[in-house]
Write a structure and sequence with these properties.
mainly alpha, elongated
Length: about 190
């Protein structure tokens, strides 16, 4: 995985360098609708918009899904249960998950529900915007319940450590996202697509 990420990030860096050079050449040739990343305006854009251009829901989704993935793995809920305690804990965890889904359904699918849009639509609505965070929350709650009941998690600290473990596992995706997204917004800036 790390080798693949290294290759991908390397390709994105090479692509960014090629884009910087080609934007300079194309703008020097006065090609229409092309902005140079080397011009004073391009440099100001690159440094001034760097942080805000990387902020997107996708970044938050990667972080949340990584955290929930860590809880899912560390809780051991996906392993086949052999003991009585594990089977009972799995049933209780499924019950907790069903309660979470029921609460979300009540907030979403009844008439005039809170998570629907002002026009009563499911998309776009607060529900559709928060779908990944909702699913991550349900995975975290279900996994934590199972982990606490089976003693995979001994304390609040072990739950946090599971979340950190998930972030460590998701770090290659975060790094790939950062370089890919920066290349993408640079392309959009150079060719005035934004």
């Amino acid at each position: 995985m790390n080798r693949l990420v290294s290759w991908f990030v390397g390709l994105m860096i090479i692509g960014e360098l090629i884009l910087i050079f080609s934007s300079w050449v194309l703008s020097a040739l006065m090609i229409e609708n092309v902005q140079s990343l080397i011009s004073s305006e391009g440099v100001r854009w690159f440094f001034g918009e760097f942080t805000s251009s990387l902020l997107s829901p996708v970044l938050l989704w990667i972080i949340l899904l990584s955290i929930s993935f860590g809880c899912l793995l560390r809780s051991r809920i996906l392993k086949s249960s052999s003991s009585y305690r594990e089977r009972v804990s799995r049933r209780i965890s499924i019950g907790v998950m069903m309660i979470c889904f029921a609460v979300i359904a009540l907030l979403t699918f009844i008439p005039h529900a809170i998570l629907l849009s002002a026009t009563g639509q499911l998309y776009p609505s607060p529900f559709s915007h928060a779908l990944v965070p909702i699913l991550s929350f349900i995975i975290i709650v279900t996994s934590t319940t199972y982990g606490l009941l089976t003693h995979s998690f001994f304390s609040f600290r072990s739950v946090i450590e599971a979340m950190i473990f998930g972030l460590c596992k998701g770090a290659p995706l975060l790094i790939s996202y950062l370089f890919f997204w920066q290349f993408l917004v640079s392309v959009r800036y150079v060719f005035m697509l934004c």
